[in-house]
């Protein structure tokens, strides 16, 4: 795989197979990037593997806003149901499960890293948000 292709598609070590006349791009891409899921506060979400081109233009503005107004739309856009559909009432479900704003910051950081092709563990996302001044230490820790 060339360095330039690896930069565009960093999650793949193998070169993509030739796109045949009998296969659509969508079918080809679905084979190369199968959906993985995780559960966050009782909601099964698809682990993001990319950000749409249009969404990249606005994501930083949304994150720069204070509080839920900035992070909830980002999380809702990045975290989808296992089939890729929007999750109805995602924020309301997390709110009912007791999610607090620092958690939302961590989840958004984690999702954005995955979408950018630089996956983080949840623990690494906590550290990244703490380093950025967005996530205070959990209650009961120094």
Structure write-up:
The chain is mainly α and 142 residues long. The chain has a domain at 36-131. Helix content is 49%, strand content 6%. It is built from seven helices and two strands, in the order H-H-E-E-H-H-H-H-H. The protein is globular. The termini are far apart. Mean pLDDT is 75; it is low at 1-8.
Outline of the structure:
The chain has 142 residues and is mostly helical. The protein has helices spanning 3-8, 25-32, 53-64, 68-78, 90-96, 101-115, 122-131; strands at residues 37-40, 43-46.
Q: What strand line-up does the widest sheet have?
A: 1-2
Q: Give the CA-based shape.
A: globular
Give the termini distance in whole angstroms.
Answer: 46 Å
Query: What amount of the residues lies in strands?
Result: 5-15%
One letter per element, helices H and strands E, the order comes to HHEEHHHHH
Mean pLDDT: 75
| Largest pleated sheet | 2 strands, antiparallel
Q: Low-confidence segments, ≥5 residues, pLDDT <50?
A: 1-8
What class, by secondary structure content?
mainly alpha
Helix percentage = 40-55%
Give the radius of gyration: 17 Å
Strand tally is 2
Number of helices: 7
């Amino acid at each position: 795989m060339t360095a330039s292709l690896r930069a565009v598609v960093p999650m793949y070590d193998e070169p993509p197979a030739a796109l045949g006349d009998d296969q659509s791009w969508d079918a080809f891409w679905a084979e190369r990037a199968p959906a993985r899921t995780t559960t966050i506060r009782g909601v099964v979400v698809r682990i993001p593997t990319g950000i749409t081109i249009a969404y990249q233009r606005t994501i930083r503005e949304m994150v720069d806003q204070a509080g839920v107004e900035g992070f909830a739309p980002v999380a809702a856009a990045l975290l989808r149901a296992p089939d890729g559909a929007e999750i109805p009432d995602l924020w309301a479900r997390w709110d009912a499960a007791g999610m607090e704003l620092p958690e939302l910051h961590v989840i958004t950081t984690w999702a954005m890293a995955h979408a950018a092709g630089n996956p983080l563990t949840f623990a690494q996302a906590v550290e990244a948000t703490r380093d950025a001044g967005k996530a205070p230490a959990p209650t009961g820790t120094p």
